[in-house]
Amino acid sequence: MFKIIAIILLAISTAGAGYFGWTQKNSSAAVTEQVAELTQKVEESDKKAEATEAELAASKEMLPPLMTKAQELEAVKAAFSSGTILKDLEAAYAKEKKGLSADRQLGLAGLRLLTNGTKDPATVEAFQKALEMTDWKGQQKVICAAQNALAAAGEKVKVMSECAPVVPAGKDDKKEASAGKADAKDAHSKDDKKGDKKGDKKDAHGPADTHVAHWDYEGAMGPENWGKEFPTCGKGKSQAPLNIKGPFEKVRFSIAPDYKQGQLKIVNNGHTIQVNVANGSKIRIDGKPYDLLQFHFHRPSEEHIDGKPSAMVIHLVHKNMEGELAVVAVMLREGNENPVIKTLWTHAPKNAGSEVLPDGVMFNPASLLPKELDFFHYDGSLTTPPCTEKVKFYILKTQVSISKEQISDFPFKMNARPIQPTNGRPIYSN
Fold it and tell me: Which of the two residues, 23 and 32, has the higher pLDDT score?
């Protein structure tokens, strides 16, 4: 009996031990897994801590220079707010006993704005007036004075055509002044390589003076001889105009005009009819802005399409902030009367060296453009002496009509430079 009881107890104890061992095994595996997870989390926390410490160290290194700059700015701010700098500068200018230039006016106005703040009406008004003075013409006077002074002193400086010496005007009618009064932007040219010994006019399509021109479209001073006086005209490798023919390289950018309405200023400079436009008209080429300076006409078109010229062409001349020129060409084919050109021809002066500002006539250059602005493009040059290169040309594919009578009314029978060699230059199409 006892033997049986002992066997039963032994069996029970053995089973209990097995069950306990099994549960312990499973519990150990779970604990091991938890330990692994906690270890991973600790490692990740350590890495984050290291990164945070590195950032903190970098910030500590940057802090002293920033504190120094902050102190400097505070010092500058204090100097401005006290008005010391402004008073010193005003006193210095007052001692000169001269009228302030546009640049100085703007500088002082800006300093007053920083010192007094925008709540001072007098300060704001002074700043606005200073801004009104700082247009291109104001800057031009400063630049021209410097260029002419250097040239007079014998320095080798290229004087811009806009800075050519003014020829005294006669007592003409208000609407028609001599070219000496005209501060017109030139057509393609900036200035001649060298001036004529007899004092001939300085620019190609700019305002004409009373002297005889030293280049022309025919005869001894015609295009074939331009290179004698203007070397780039004869030796340049990127000259314009070109014959536009394929194959073409593809471009994906566009041109977007933003022209404004303004008063007409029409000049007969002895080589073409040129219209100078008011400030504000722009065009964006591949997103880059160019200011419209003026537009002028050639008969026949200087550019050819597949070997054929058009009756005439309009060249709209633009310039960007870097001084780069861009010419948009609108081809004119013989057809119906053009009402826009009719307005221009009505007021265009017939005599070389004359300028007309018709009263009450407003004009938007956008009216010259076709609806479609697809174009051919190439890198060229001025098409008039001195034939300066690095001028971008955009020839619109869509042509605009002009009547036979309007072509005949243009005061120049021929003022187009012949086609120039391509010399391997690519021609693009959008």
Answer: 32
